Amino acid sequence: MRSDEITAAAAGTWTLGDLTVNRMGFGSMRLTANPNRELAITVLRRAVELGVNHIDTAAFYFSPGGILDVGSGQTRYATELIRDALTPYPSDLVITTKVGPGFADDGTFSMASTEAQLRAQVQENLRRLRRDHLDVVNLRIVKRPVPDSIAERFGALVKMRDEGLIRHLGLSNVRVDHLDEAQQIAPVVCVQNGYAIDTNRGDDGLLKICGERGVAFVPFFAIAGPQREAGPAESHSDPVQEIARARGVTPQQVRLAWTLHQGRHVLAIPGTGNPAHLAENIAAGALSLSPTELAQLA
Ligand SMILES: NC(=O)c1ccc[n+]([C@@H]2O[C@H](COP(=O)([O-])OP(=O)(O)OC[C@H]3O[C@@H](n4cnc5c(N)ncnc54)[C@H](OP(=O)(O)O)[C@@H]3O)[C@@H](O)[C@H]2O)c1
């Protein structure tokens, strides 16, 4: 099968609460960094054509001023690109967003901590996406200084869930004790942490616990790894390169395939503004790694 004929269904599905998604999804953070708005729209539509039904976003993904400020002079919000590209939304599309971090239009960073601040962020997501409810909202915390308790903020989101503004809740950038605390309050459908074959492997335990509890583990920076916001990993370990060469795929595809092999509950949300990379990433969902290859990568 040609790689551009492989769909996001190739890696199977997972259920977030009552919402079934293909394990291969799409991350929208990078879309606002490209001054070419039409290209971003094309990538989003192509992603859906290729079977993507899980898109990750945030109201604070915008340029200039937000998370990837390229100073284009024209404000673009990932949430609005998603709306403009995909409305009327396909009935099976699950949009996951996050609240916590916020940027003023001039790029000043702040962290929402009160119910009123979190509510304003939920409402901003609703408005920009033009939805009457949000499918999944992750409470995103910062690790430094790491808060001991997330109960108050998570409780505020539970209230909004009970009001019908949010369907399901998740957490982002958290430790096991944060997950424990939140699960005492309400169901958690996903944990979204930075994690890759060569990054944050201290979260191996958290990933396993999520699997045991039926919570999706959704790594960000699976391709970028230690380069984080700066872009794709510059170098790859010898096993990644050897397997890529032997299988006729790219090192980025091996990184994504490795991610999906960490458990049925692990979902991928690779981010790209490049249609060719999009097709490659989705094709990585069909790349089955043998036990020998997984041992090499370990
Ligand atoms: N919860 C959080 O705190 C948090 C933090 C960061 C990100 N996220 C979410 O996670 C998603 C994924 O993170 P990310 O987009 O930053 O990183 P990523 O998916 O690990 O990597 C994206 C980078 O790799 C490049 N790339 C993608 N596919 C490629 C391919 N096939 N070949 C070569 N290069 C490729 C992209 O550039 P091109 O555009 O040139 O392809 C981009 O620079 C984000 O979009 C966002 O939705 C969440």
Structure description:
The protein has 298 residues and is an alpha/beta fold. The chain has one domain (8-297): TIM Barrel (Alpha-Beta Barrel). The chain is built from 10 helices and 13 strands. It has a 7-stranded parallel sheet, with helices on one face. A two-stranded antiparallel sheet has the order 1-2. It has a two-stranded antiparallel sheet with strand order 5-6. A hairpin with a 2-residue loop joins β1 and β2 (19-22). The longest helix is centred in the middle third of the chain and has 15 residues, at 115-129. The two termini are 29 Å apart. The model has no long low-confidence stretch (mean pLDDT 93). Residues 23-297 form the NADP-dependent oxidoreductase domain. GO terms for molecular function: oxidoreductase activity. It holds the Pfam family Aldo_ket_red. This is Oxidoreductase. Keywords: Oxidoreductase.
Summary tags:
298 residues, alpha/beta, oxidoreductase, two-stranded antiparallel ribbon, binds NADP nicotinamide-adenine-dinucleotide phosphate, globular, AKR, NAD(P)_OxRdtase_dom_sf, Aldo-Keto_reductase
How do the helices and strands follow one another from N- to C-terminus?
Answer: EEEHEEEHEEEHEHEHEHEHHHH
Report how far the terminal alpha carbons are from each other.
29 Å
CATH topology: TIM Barrel
The CATH superfamily is identified as NADP-dependent oxidoreductase domain
- In terms of structural class, how would the helical and strand content be classed? alpha/beta
Major pleated sheet? 7 strands, parallel
**Portion of residues within helices:** 25-40%
